[in-house]
Amino acid sequence: MTCVTISYAVVIPFNARKQLTLVMRRAASLVPDLYAVDADYALSELCKDEQKLEKVLLGREFHVSLGRTVGIQVHQIDSLVAMLRQKFQSQQRYWMEFNKWEHFVNDDSTRSFLSLEVTRTGLPEISKQIHMVDEVYRLHGLPEFYKNPRPHISLAWALGDVSSKLKQATKEIEKFENSINSSKNCNLRCNFSCIVCKVGKKVYDICKIGD
Known about the structure:
Elements: E1 3-12, H1 18-30, E2 35-36, H2 43-46, H3 50-58, E3 62-65, E4 70-73, H4 77-87, E5 95-105, E6 111-118, H5 123-139, E7 152-159, H6 163-180, E8 188-191, E9 194-199, E10 202-208
Helix pairs in contact: 1-6, 4-5
């Protein structure tokens, strides 16, 4: 059977924010070898053109993963999609707050990521959704998500394991955010609105919350 790559994600659309643009400029100065996620443009180069930075880095659609990206058999697609739709047919709208700068490294240590993590508002709801996806994965013999899920969106990446650089950078970014916002309310908030399943280049709607 032909294998395809499948990923499950909560899609979180939001507009570019001036403050986030300033923060990413700061990140590029702290870690010069960062690249924009999904675009592979050097962050330092994007920072030379504010309009391009907002369009390429912040104009994209971010997502929170609810399951691992895995290889599946073509004949499993319909079953996976159908079970997920059934699982998520009664979802309610809730707020997510990305309130903590963090760094992550992929399983084979080939890439490191600068990310915004959900640690409070929305965490219980996302954790429950991850558990629901795990149940569907389990029935199809697929690997479940990480034991202690840490929902996040990734904004930039670097080659290899550069944890030490990114750990220090996140501390500096938080100090910088506080210095440019007297209220210290720098969090990114958005509503949960839908879940999609991505199979290769095809996208399946799993659930969508109406207005």
